[in-house]
């Protein structure tokens, strides 16, 4: 359960806000889809200027949306990342799937792992549905991330005036995920607080001891 993004307090949308956990899953509720489309507009229209006003296209009618949800103890508050997958309907190429519209809210990009986990669930859930090949047109600046996640670059592309690369996932690195509605859960990264820094600055604790304290209190991933 969640409110519309416009009704969330500013602290829930700003860079200072951090959640205790993040769930990456298939969209199952209307508000999840609504916020996913809002996030796509903010990233692809407002931030990158790739589209004018809206990035929706014919693929959205048949695509499966995935989201990364920020929350507390499983209580989901906000969509902070999204991607979509769809199967290519072609008798000549059965089992071909595509991923597209990968977006992470700028305020949560430093969280780490949100984009990579969205990619992981996208490919793994398609694999469970009979995917034999999984492709994507990836923005050039994200090529390194995909390569680290076992994707191969096939050729360079220019799409809407921006450099892209045509890439393919190595399905052997993505075991089928048959429960994408539950997805994967990540623990949030919590910053070191002033109280935790004080002993370090005074020389009472080493940096390693500060980190051990954080691990013991469950405040690091």
TrEMBL record:
Highest taxon above the source species: Bacteria
Domain N-acetyltransferase, chain residue ranges per copy: 24-180
Molecular function, one GO term: acyltransferase activity, transferring groups other than amino-acyl groups
Entries under PROSITE patterns matching the protein: GNAT (PS51186)
A Pfam entry, by short name: Acetyltransf_1
Name of the protein in its database record: Histone acetyltransferase
Organism: Proteobacteria bacterium 228
